Amino acid sequence: MLLITACLYPLQTEAQNSQWRGANRDGVYGETGLLKSWAEGGPQLLWETLETGKGYSSPAIAGNRLYVTGLDEDENKELFFAFTLDGTKIYETEYGTPWKESYSHARTTPAVVNGKAYVISGSGEIACIDTENGKIVWSVDGGTKFERKTGNWGTSECPLVFDNKVIYTPSGDQTTMVALNAETGETIWKSPALGDIGAYVSPMQISYKGKRQILGITGVNVIGVNPDSGTVEWSFNDWGRKGDDAARPKAGKIAPNTPLYKDGCIFVSQGYDMGSFMLKLNDDLSGVSLVWRNADFDTHIGGYVLIDDIIYGSNWINNGQGNWIAADWNTGETKYNEAWSGGASKGAVITADNMLYCYDERRGTVGLVKAIPEKFDVVSSFRITRGEGPHWAHPVISEGVLYIRHGSALMAYKIK
Fold this sequence. Notes:
CATH class: Mainly Beta
Largest sheet: 5 strands, antiparallel
Number of strands: 34
Radius of gyration: 20 Å
């Protein structure tokens, strides 16, 4: 771990309606009064359904409904589902074509804003759906229109919606990021092309020194984009580990995790031994400087969370194995790097009420873990046995209910 300088802590971005990994896309859910331990076998199961179609996406909860995406029975189309909060399906709507070359499950978690849901298919189709009745308001074949270039796994982006704009990152030689009108689907702006392929990262909006910016990641670039004009105001591609071509970082083609942001500092981590690094924004948001690197913290696809200046997540040993890890936000120092006993592996993490909710991607173990930097301290755990495929969907917490998705299965557990 190379220490360069230190960064200070926090500023929350403006909260939005239900979307990918919570209000600020950082895996933090503002619930309180939650259980600090679970009964043997896990918390009370309120309901479950096998009617979501196959997907790696998470549910979005808005008002008295839950929305999620999945595949149809023939696995040829992606569907948008609406459920009541007791698990009764209300409707399903076809909105796009999945990526079929590898891991074809639906990936996009809906962004629900002002009675509309926004989704992006694995083939790059962006759709706006009326959540009341499930009708398509507009649809744009963004993959074709913007000549997207992807890596091995197509498009896995969850749309960012703000200021009546829908943000999509096609990458390629025509443009890098685009903003569509949330009411009509018309193009508002297109950023310049970086000539890069796309990654699998859902962008986020930040604010610093009275200015706003969109943080995104392409195949080999972390970028800051002006939300009003689409101008790429800075890019960073020194991932710290080079591939066969010294000019192209090995990070290319694999990045899946939305960064963490606090008070002008940006934390980025990806798997495959890429490690992690902290960037510090210039005061005018025109560039970034490297603060520190950490070779231990290389999260694969499970995201990470920040609690009291400590970053928690899991790292990559190989595609089926990884430890759980904690690092200091200000210095990058590794606090712990431990295996989850009992055969569990790396996976997704979210947090609420000063506890970690960890979801092992290999065996489906769900753990309630103390958010402490001294050790990976699992208080309670249980296993998900319904569904199929890798356990890649990120958990969601809403109104004292923990939602776990596994393939075509969705379960709701009472944790308050």
